[in-house]
Each structure stands twice: as structure tokens, then as C-alpha cells.
Predict the structure of N-acetylmuramoyl-L-alanine amidase.
Amino acid sequence: MKSVLRRLTTTTALAATLLVGSAIASTAQALAQDYGQQSIASDRVVAIAEPVSNGRFYKLLVIEQLSDQRACFEEKGGSPTTIEPLLLNFDFSGICSRSSDSNGYSVRIGNEDLSRRYRLQVTRRGDNLVLVALPGALPGRGGDLPVLEIGRSNGVANDFVKLTLDPGWKMSRRTLSGNAQGHIYLSNDQDLQTVIAQAGGSRQPTTALSPSTPSPSAPLTSTPLPSTPPILTGGSLPPILGGGSLPRPGAAPTPSAVPTPSAGGSTYYQVIVPTDSAIVRSRVQQVASDAFITNVNGRRVIQAGLFQERSRADEVVSKLSRQGIETQVIEGQRASAPSSPTASSTGQKFYQVVVPESGSDTRARVNAVESGAFRTQVNGQSVIQAGRFSERDRAEQLQRRLSDARLPAQIVEGSAPVASVPRSPSPSPSVPQARQGQLTVVLDPGHGGGDPGAVGVGGLREKDVNLAISEKVKANLEAKGINVVMARASDVEIDLDPRVALAERVNADIFVSIHANAISLSRPDINGLETYYYSSGLRLAQTIHNSVLQQTDLLDRGVRRARFYVLVNTSMPAVLVETGFVTGRDDAARFRNPAARDEIANGISNGILQYLNVQ
């Protein structure tokens, strides 16, 4: 039964982010200020951390008891406390309500609706799941606000886990002109400044770091400071402590524990996972708690450990393999330490993007923009390192994104001696090879396998719709001489990172991710086409969107910008097409009709051909 509810409520991180943008964009600021609230008795509503992808991450689910005709949920004690969703045993219309995205819930503090400045997220912290309000629901909005904790669980499980709200927080119902709305507030009646002060946050401006005018007693050098984790983009390796793994970012090593390398250097064994997926990193950290994202020969990877003994590296590899995590061991030679901390003239330049630490929430705010940020020091000043690059333009791109979130990012330029770090080749699956001059398109049918995506009217599964449309698009493009590579060609579950990696490996000209949208099953009136892009995909998105509208009678819900993983992390023009709502009355019927599905596919393929200027 629980798996059925997951299918009903889970649209995965992509669709959840999509609906955040949809709900917020449709709410005018003036109207938000007119909203009121109506309290809900605490025993008639429950906040739940719902597992996604077998507990790899969680999303917020709220169930409310509207009438006493039948119980909507049942609490089960234990550690953690779990919730049995009883509403699935009957037609719960008018008896229960279920909210699973930002169309159904938002943050309210004092008399202010903050749906445009905060977004709700469930995150794991140690042995607890924590419900937090993250600033920046819209780009450029909320960046001056701290992260706020709203509630937490009393343990972790791959189950529906109860979230208990912190003191001062409650759930209430949104009202407009005194009339109750079907929207839940996570609310706090105190004013915003008081809530921020109680959370230990601050909205005061930060002190800028001035790398261009360093103090004579603390010059910027090429040698990473002890608290900086290893960045292997051509840089030298830091000392290895006592034959073990490196300390966590921000933990300075003990000088006496650093062995002095011999004149010929010493061998190290670096255990890496060839991805920078935040989801995979959280899984790696369950085995190696000090794992972090770094760069190896221009690749962003997760470092799980750095060892002097091969046996210890193999031990970590074995543990990760048992968890189904692909690993590599890079064996290299650590050169003797330079006699001077000053970089050699032959050193390779790096560009370190840092944010001065001004409060307890700085790291969380930086991580909201760029995952993998950690605490370190530059010239004795505590900073959050958001990234380190060998190319200046990539550093500047990140600096702009941080600045948009009102974070005073600085770029510190340095250089490091070039160390030889051999790159272990990773096996790659067989994919169609483009002939010379042939265009390559990667099609990405969303979800698959154990991840059905959204489940809509009559059990219609998003993963099936996505694959059917993608197969028709593939056939249309191949008939025009296009080399088409499918991220998945069957009903298999694939994480987001391998989809992106495939597009990079085949040097795709464009990347098109195909999905179906969803909202509550109680809203069959919501139907229509949405197309998303992040940066270079705007013209591609507009071309495909217009082509589908010309080919079908789908409602136009617009072309929008979003930070979906497959859009942000691809280097070629990339778009994500939401071909309709599996929960929509009209769209669900269209998806069940092969001829109507083909019309959507024809619109997508015609748009791609038009963009590529292929007749």
C-alpha cells in the first residue's frame, strides 16, 4: 500500500522543482500579502518525510483529516515514529487532503506569506530527518535570509517518517478574504526578525575578502592551507595522515602526524566515485563519512579516501561495491614537499571561489547554490569554499550565481605545482557512434525501472509515457539521418548523473529530456505543455515548445527556466519537456491514445529538426 502512495505522490526531485516554479510564478506578491490563516488542530494534520528512490532522499508530504468519517492516517510509535497512510484504502474525497508539493504548502511567518522567498525541503542530518525552510524560492529572492529549521524526526527509515514541528511552529490553512483555501502553511506567529534571531541567523552584511591586497604577513600562496581538502586539478597532494584517510574539510591535520616523504616521493591510493551527484555522495558518506566532491584531471568526482596502503583502499572499495556504488582507485606518486611554500614558476593556475563566513547559516546558503561547499581558511579568515577551477570563466560563472543569491563571493587566484595523477579509464557501454559530420541527439526518457515517476489517472505511469514518446522521436530523427542516443531504451532505473555523463561522452549536439507532469489527483482540470531550459537551451526550448503546440491541441503553460540537474550539468543546449499531466483529465486520455502520443512526439522531433536546420 505504501508503495502505491509513493507512486501517487512522488514526481521525484525534477517534478517537485517544476511545481515549485509553477506555483510561485502564478502568485502575485500583492495577493500573497492579503492571505490570512486558519489554525488546524495538531491531531488532525501530520507532516511526513516521504522516501524517494528507496530512501536516497526525502520529500515533504502533509496529510490532513477533513472529516471524521474515516481515519486518514495512523501513527506508529518507535524510533523513528512512522505514519501509516490509511487514506489509500478508500475514496478520500472530502474526508482527507494530501499535499505533496509547493502547490499544497508553503512557509508563513508573522503576517507574511513567504512562498516567494522560502522553499521547504527535507534533509538528512546524522540520524534524523530535518524539515527546513531554504531561502531563494525564486532566483534573486530570499538570498539575504538564513536557513530555518521547522521540525525533525526521531530517527531515519525507508518509510513514511513523522516530522515533529519545533516549538513555535504549527500547521494552518491559508485563507483569502476569510475563505479557507486548500493550501497548508508551515507557520510561525512571531515576526520574521524574532524567528531569525532565535535560529541564530543574521541578515547583517558580510565583510568582504580582499585577495587582491593581502597582508604582508599572510600572503596568498599556491600551497593549500591545512584545512583545505585535496583538489586534484593538476595540484599537489596534501600530506597523508598516519596512513589513514584525509580529515574532513575544515579539520586541520596535526603537524606531527605528517610523515616526511622520501626524496623519491611516496605512493598514494585515491578512492574515487566517478560522479558529483549529491545523491550518490550522501550514499558514499554512509560508508566514508569524510567523502567530498573534488576534481581529478578536469572531472568532478567524489573522493572516498586517500591512503598510503593499498589494502585500506581496497577495503573501502569493497564496502562501496557492496552498496552498488561504482568506484575507482587511482595510484599515483606524491612528490617530495617543496622547500618553499611559494608556487614554482611552472605551476598551474587555479581559481578558488570563496564566501566569507558571516554566520552559522553561510555554508548552508552556499550549498543551496552549489552543493559540496565546505569550510576552510584563507589568510586566517574563515571562508566557505564553493569551488576551485582551472578555468577562470567557470569560477566567474559560480561567482555570479552566488552573487545573485546575495552571497559576497570572491575569487582567489593561485598556482600549484603540477603533479602526475594517472586517470583510470572507466568502462563505457556501447552507444551508437556518429559518422563524421553526423549530428548527435541524446534523448532522455525520464524515470524507469523501480522509479515510475508520477502515477496519474487510472494508474497511468509517467515512465511508460516518457519511453513511448521518446521511441517515436528517435524513429523520426533517425529517418532524417540524425544519430540518436537514448539515455535508456528499456524499463530500467538510471540515476541523473549517468544520463548527463552519457551526453558528454558521446559529445551530443543537444540533450532533450522527456517527462510527463503531475499534480494532485484531485485537480484533473490542470493540463498542458511546459518546456524548461537553464542557460544555452532557451532557443531550443522555444522551438520545440512551439512545434508541439502547432502539432497538438495541448494547452500552453509556457517556456520556463529551472535548475534541473540534467539542464545545469550538461555542456550542450539542453531542455526538459513536460508533455502533459498524467493527473489531468484531458492529458491522461491523450497519453493513452497511441495516435495522440505520436502527435506529441512528432512535434518534439520537428522542433529538434528545425533547431538543427535539418530538412
Notes: The chain is about 25% helix and 30% strand. Residues 594-612 form the longest helix (19 residues).
